[in-house]
Specification:
Layout: E1 3-5, H1 10-18, E2 22-26, E3 36-40, E4 46-50, E5 53-59, H2 65-73, E6 75-81, E7 89-100, H3 106-110, E8 121-135, H4 151-157, H5 161-170
Antiparallel strand pairs: 1-8, 2-3, 2-6, 4-5, 5-8, 6-7, 7-8
């Protein structure tokens, strides 16, 4: 029922790019640390860079657990479920890195997200696939996609770069994770692009 893949290409790439939502999972090294699972969406916020590399935008909003875990150990799993069409679940286990606004690679990476970029982008999470697999997904329910929620983009889009930096600094678990790990570097660097 399940299949391992050597690369992200063809049918697999098309499936990933068509899904309106995906999930990320990360964990700290500490046995008593909090595991993090986050839904990700918004059209244009994920790109397949090549057959072994993906990237997605990390926006302001809630905490920065994913960033903290990636900075500590790099482990990440991405998952997509087919809520329409033929049943399928795809998981990519990989090593990730957070690229922040003051990184020399920021300009090139942020340019990949022309449909979704905005002042609320605080990092690009780059994922290097180590294990690519899909399974049947027979138990995943059918769900109707009705469209994008615009509240997040609108809320962050009203903020200047300075206002967004202030917003990040006031929130709990942004500079430091729930488990006390370094998360988003504060003060938030200004955008270079």
């Amino acid at each position: 029922m399940g299949k391992l893949h050597d690369r992200i290409d063809g049918r697999l790439r098309a499936f990933i790019e068509e899904q309106p939502i995906f999930f990320t999972a990360t964990a700290p090294l500490a046995a008593d640390g909090h595991i993090n699972l986050s839904p990700k969406g918004r059209k244009g916020t994920l790109v397949v860079i090549d057959e072994e590399t993906l990237a997605y935008l990390d926006f302001g909003g809630s905490g920065a657990e994913t960033i903290a875990h990636v900075r500590e150990n790099g482990r990440i799993t991405l998952m997509w479920c087919a809520f329409a069409g033929p049943p399928n679940i795809v998981r990519i286990h990989g090593e990730a890195e957070a690229v922040f606004r003051d990184d020399p690679r920021w300009a090139e990476l942020i340019g990949l997200f022309t449909e979704a970029d905005g002042p609320g982008a605080r990092a690009v999470i780059v994922v290097h696939a180590k294990r690519i697999a899909d399974v049947c997904g027979y138990a995943v329910p059918f769900m109707e996609y009705q469209g994008e929620r615009t509240l997040h983009a609108e809320f962050l889009g009203r903020k200047t770069d300075e206002e967004f930096a202030e917003y990040c600094e006031k929130k709990d678990f942004i500079g430091v994770s729930v488990d006390g790990l370094p998360a988003l570097p504060l003060p938030l660097p200004p955008r270079t692009v």
